[in-house]
Design brief:
It is built from twelve helices and seven strands. The protein is an alpha/beta fold. 32% of the residues are buried.
Length: 227
């Protein structure tokens, strides 16, 4: 992106927000539209609606909650990257930054920001991304570099990082107490496919039974609650 084009987009920025919390959407709208030239060109609580509505809204950037009632922000990021390859994505989250941020970046997002950050950091993150740079918190950037520099070990966190995004979605839903049929409904896949993912999870995590998987997932989610 040229400098002239960067400044043009920064001066007149169209933002599309995907978040299933009305208060969050309202707060983002007021915050972002308080900046001269910036406007929300669209907003939705739904991953499915985002896929159909975002391309028509012609956004300069997408701001997406990582977990939605009808989908997964990571999967949505992949889908929107395919539909709108030139439009950058900023992921917002109330969940463990150290665990989710790498997944978000691998899925194609250009930035990751905790919802607990100061409001001015959201504006700063969007500006940085529109300049063609990645955005993560300074602390997270150091954490990623530290992890990349150390030898591979078999800790739980590292084992979970090796799961595919869909495997992780199934693991998370198991940990939240959902049964196979409900997981299938939430992810819009078959019961048989969920059972296949369960087998993959047991194999990758070195677990012997479905009960072990349930215990492991529940314990993980309890230890990594919303901030």
């Amino acid at each position: 992106m040229s400098t002239a084009l960067e400044e043009n987009v920064l001066a007149s920025c169209r933002i599309f927000v995907v978040d299933d919390h009305p208060l969050v959407r309202d707060g983002l709208r007021r915050l972002l539209e308080s900046k001269p030239g910036w406007t929300l060109c669209g907003e939705t609580p739904s991953a499915l609606q985002a896929i159909s509505e975002a391309p028509k809204a012609r956004p300069d950037i997408l701001v997406i909650d990582i977990l939605l009632d009808d989908g997964d922000g990571i999967e949505l990021t992949k889908n929107l990257r395919a539909l709108l390859p030139a439009v950058p994505i900023l992921i917002l989250s109330m969940y463990d930054e150290a665990f989710y941020a790498e997944r978000a970046l691998r899925a194609g997002a250009q930035g990751f920001l905790m919802k607990t950050e100061a409001s001015e950091n959201i504006v700063a993150a969007i500006e940085q991304i529109l300049r063609g740079e990645l955005y993560v918190s300074p602390g997270l950037g150091k954490s990623i570099l530290k992890r990349l520099a150390k030898p591979v070990s078999s800790t739980d966190a590292e084992a979970l990082q090796k799961l595919s995004d869909r495997e992780w979605a199934v693991f998370r839903l198991i940990g939240e107490g959902h049964g196979t049929r409900r997981i299938a409904e939430k992810l819009r896949i078959s019961v048989k496919t969920v059972e296949t993912y369960r087998e993959h999870l047991k194999s990758k995590l070195g677990l012997k039974s479905g009960a072990d998987l349930l215990h492991h997932a529940v314990q993980w989610m309890r230890n990594h609650p919303r901030v």
